[in-house]
Amino acid sequence: MPEFPVNASPIQQSLNPLQQILGYTEPIFNASMAGAAGGALAAAVSAAGGFGMLGIGGNATKEWIDNEAALAASSGRGWGAGLMAWVLAKNLEPLEQVLDHGPSFVCISFGEPGPAASLAHESGALVGMQVGNAAELSRALEDDIDVVICRGNEGGGHGRNEVSTLPLLQLALERTGKPVIAAGGLATAAGVAAVLGAGASAAWIGTRFAAATESTSHRNIKDSIGAAGLDDTVYTRAFDIAQRIDWPVQYGGRALRNDFSDTWAENLEALGAAVKADDSLTTSINGARAEGDTSLAPVYAGQSAGLSTTGQSAAEIIADLSRFRSLLRQAASRWDTK
């Protein structure tokens, strides 16, 4: 575990320990979304006072990691990277490569983080782990994990579909003194105020940043997020099965409903048979992803898509979310009985 700052200056005393170590002022992380959180988004979030995260997918090439990590570091402020433990179990090279660029925080999730967590610690980085149920929380309380990210099932992209954000956050805060970050369903200043008021050290926000101007998401995906409502998502493994991606079965994905999910989300056995029979379905959905055809391609987004808009920069999003301070002051004043 890291040593948290002592004898802090008056300015530092206004920051929580995780802020003091990682050097951000706004307790807002962009989620490390593969396919959306490239180096430009991470740099823009960090430059705006938040903490920028680079998302490294399972097929990221050496050249891509070098280019995007250098871009993430270009703000001159702290930044981090998120990787998948089940991918690193086969090959630690993507982590070794990103560590060469000096991230101060590494999130290793969706599987056993052990060897990867040790390697990240050796580089001097803090290590975080996303958890989606009580069992994963127990694993994150072991000594090799510094920061716990409680990801509720409202969140977009891959994760478990078992517990919502607030119950999981409350359990984590009761069980550990480690910094806890809340994730899943957060997109507004009110949402940020809610989790910070409960005791979280920061808010981990994905869907709203996926629609940001600096996101690497296709324009059509951003537009789809902006047009979606709260109840327009579905949790399914159908997109992974169709693309032949070996995500562990316990980690489905929350995405916007579309023609593909309407056909296959509740019919996974038939989908598996169709994919096994020939390559046409896989070819079609891979082509749809490349072309931004959101009727077939997955648009990974959480329920907070109904609270997100397009056309905003990361700096504008951070500025809007930073209004959580006034909301907390108003709440404290409203409920203060002294």
UniProtKB/TrEMBL annotation:
Task: Show the stretches that span the lipid bilayer.
Answer: none
Report the protein name in the record: Nitronate monooxygenase
Family annotation (InterPro entries): Aldolase_TIM (IPR013785), NMO (IPR004136)
Q: Which lineage ranks, top first, belong to the organism behind this chain?
A: Bacteria, Bacillati, Actinomycetota, Actinomycetes, Micrococcales
A Pfam family cross-referenced in the UniProt record is: NMO
Name the top EC class.
oxidoreductase
Q: Does the keyword Oxidoreductase apply?
A: yes
Q: Indicate whether Membrane appears among the record's keywords.
A: no
Q: Which UniProt keywords apply?
A: Flavoprotein, FMN, Monooxygenase, Oxidoreductase
The source's domain of life comes to Bacteria
Molecular-function GO term, any one? nitronate monooxygenase activity
Query: Recorded E.C. number(s)?
Result: 1.13.12.16
